[in-house]
Specification:
- The strands form two sheets. Strands 2, 4, 5, 6, 9, 10 and 11 form a seven-stranded mixed beta sheet that branches. Strands 1-3-8-7 form a four-stranded antiparallel beta sheet, with no helix packed on it.
- It is mostly beta strands.
């Protein structure tokens, strides 16, 4: 069974950094794009970043460009989201998800979702 598990969330002060991990089990990530999404309290889920199966193509939401970096290590079956210069508006539950494609498709085409990891940015 295809499963994704996020880790690395926590409490961080404004200006700080966190690295989230998305580990896959039951399948190899080599053939799948992976996306990171987040949902803040009272808000709709939004796309944060996506990387294709090779790692050669990435995209970012405007709100995180220049601060977040997505990467993948297919040998470790893991995708990462390095988050720098965090601010309170980044507080949310972060999810990773996979579509049945090697490229990054529309949000509705992401089929497999993790349970999420909470990131809180606060003094």
């Amino acid at each position: 069974q295809l499963q994704l598990v996020e880790s690395g969330g926590g409490l961080v002060q404004p200006g700080g950094s966190l690295r989230l991990s998305c580990a896959a089990s039951g399948f190899t990530l080599d053939y799948y794009a992976i996306g990171w999404f987040r949902q803040a309290p009272g808000k709709e889920r939004e796309g944060v970043s996506c990387v294709d199966s090779s790692g050669g193509s990435t995209n970012y939401a405007d709100s995180v460009k220049g601060r977040f970096t997505i990467s993948r290590d297919n040998a470790k079956n893991t995708v990462y989201l390095q988050m720098n210069s965090l601010n309170p508006e980044d507080t949310a539950v972060y999810y990773c998800a996979a579509p049945d494609f090697w490229f990054c498709p529309r949000v509705r085409q992401f089929e497999y979702w993790g349970q999420g990891t909470l990131v809180t940015v606060s003094e």
